[in-house]
Amino acid sequence: MRAAAAGYQGQLRIALSDGITPPRFTALLAQCRQDEPEVDIRLYEVPLSQQIRGLHDDLYDVGFAQSAEVGEGILAEPAWSDPLVVAVPARHPLLTYKRIPLDEVLRYPLVMCDPQLCEGYGRQIARILRTVDAEPLVAEQVASLDLMLALVAAGYALALVGSSQIIACRNADVIGRPLAGRSPMLTTYLLRRDVEPSETLSRFIDRVSPIITDAPSHTPESTKEINS
After folding, report:
1. CA-to-CA distance for 158 and 5, rounded, in angstroms?
2. Which of 12, 104, 122, 205 matches a 20 to 30 Å C-alpha distance to 60?
């Protein structure tokens, strides 16, 4: 009723999990507002498990998360990917590396997202860490990317994040360095129920693919240049 009174002619309920990358999602929302200003967009920040339940229960129309492990009845389609980089405090000894070996990263404490709040992100990071024969020293688990990068800036620990997240934070005390070898990618997925989407949702999904192509390419090298 409130949406209709405000002049909206439709609604899209979007659930967000895992600290979705700001530049990509901001560009998508801006495109939606430009193309269909009459559609009321509601955003809900929730853990992945709650997002999946909400999609099943028709509380949300669509969602974004960093996991494709969503069970039956939910479709998970890749939306965009970011090269994984190491967030390093300024003047840290690892900055002597242009590309940091993962086993060198694991010699230092890491700050991680709370696995309950950032479940999909945690799964992707865990898979990457299992590629080396060393246990990470987790200094802190936090509820948000902002706090994670604040702890990095203060010199408490390193972090593993998407390159566009480093660029978006624009903190001179946080420097992004790619990992040695082929850079792993952090993938964000669009989640929705496995049913015929509404016309409004179909148009929203169609906008996601151009965002992947047109968004700036945040390569490890560009991250290094911006932050070094």
Report:
1. 48
2. 122
- Structure token digits, residue 181: 């070898």
Fold of 82-185: D-Maltodextrin-Binding Protein; domain 2 (3.40.190)
Residues 6+ apart with CB under 8 A from 156: 109, 111, 139, 140
Structure tokens given for 133: 């024969």
CATH of domain 11-80+187-207: 3.40.190.10
Q: Is the pTM of this model over 0.85?
A: no
